[in-house]
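Researcher: Here's a chain I'd like modeled. Treat it as a single chain, no partners, no ligands.
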Amino acid sequence: MKNNPTPRVLLPQINWNTLHFYQKADTLYQLTAVFCHRFLPPYGDRTVDQMVQAARSGKQNIVEGFADGKSSTELQLKLLNVARASIQELREDYRDYLLSQHLTVWDKHNERFQPMVDFCKQHNDYQQYEPYFDKWSAEEMANTGLTLCHMTDTMMNNFLKHLEQQFVTQGGIKERMHAARTGYRQQQDARLSALEAENRRLKAILTAHGIPF
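Model: Modeled as a single isolated chain. Structure tokens:
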């Protein structure tokens, strides 16, 4: 008799370091720290702390979300949404900087827009951006930050849709624990039924041959 596997209580651990949206969030944090150091005043401007903390929150809540997601899908959803909110806040800070400094927010009509978008699509790791950190102008760096924010948010939104569907179909840890217990009891009942049937079969054979038991 083939046994059905007992449902898993803890979900498989995902290595967030391999996820492109985490890599982009990590790059955003590194880029933002350098941007603030180069183009914002070191004292008396709360924007520096706000931008760096928003960038860090985006990255760290992804890490915490996946660490906690092994046992709690609900908490993972919450933390990843916090990460998204932080990245959206950072996106507004970059946009506000460009507008307040009378710099250009690049769009599809700007000749520099598509090359920048292509670069950000093709590169995720911080090391691929770092050589440009001391070369880009404030406008180039802020528009790159804007683009990374948009891409990271879009990728996270797609992942969250998948996670929400997983939660609907598999439930949280309480539902998985109940399913695991129920599955285990069903397996034990099936084994007992199989043993009782085998016992009856053997008794019938012994009786047919006149062998006492």
